[in-house]
Automatic annotation (TrEMBL):
Record-stated family: Belongs to the sigma-70 factor family. ECF subfamily.
Residues annotated as transmembrane: none
Upper taxonomic lineage: Bacteria, Pseudomonadati, Planctomycetota, Planctomycetia, Pirellulales
Stored NCBIfam families: sigma70-ECF
Protein name in UniProt: ECF RNA polymerase sigma factor SigE
Gene Ontology MF annotations: DNA binding; sigma factor activity
Amino acid sequence: MSISGREPQPTTRPSLLVRLKDTRDHEAWTDFHAVYEPVIYAMCRRRGLQDADAREIVQEVLMAVSRSIANFTNHGDGTFRGWLSRITRNATIDALRKSASRRETIDASGVMRHLEIIAADNVNDETTEEFDWDRRQQLFRWAAAEVRQRTGETNWIAFWKSSVDGLSISDVAKELGIGEGAVYVARCRIIKRIRELVDDRLTE
């Protein structure tokens, strides 16, 4: 139901991590790709890989997840995002090592120095924190896009202009030709739904 209408009753559903273990759950895998592909890509690019190489790593990591997710157990410090960041990091190191072996010595030395820096990262702290920050940013973008599809364009514009652009509710109401109460309700409902979607994924 549209967010502009009656609020649906909250439902309890398994986490994305649990749902991914069912290869037939296409909705879960679609959500996973939408959130994590940009995160993995950004991590690869930040470490010096070119666009084509970064996209290749993204596919390798996603395939590795699909092969191994059924056996993944979240315990202790072995978080799902930590696991994903390690897979991405290791794939990036392998790609840089292969790149170094293909280049002449003078160029390869620079690549190898960069490789040593990456290999020295504290996987449990810096790399995972970086991965988690990118994930949070992408989660907001994903959640906003999901909510926008489920609400009317006028309500979305009312939310965006009053919450993101910083316009007053009265100015937004005048611009859109609707009541101030409608702007306030649209903003509150959309913010609430975005937060629910983000919180749902952050707890995984």
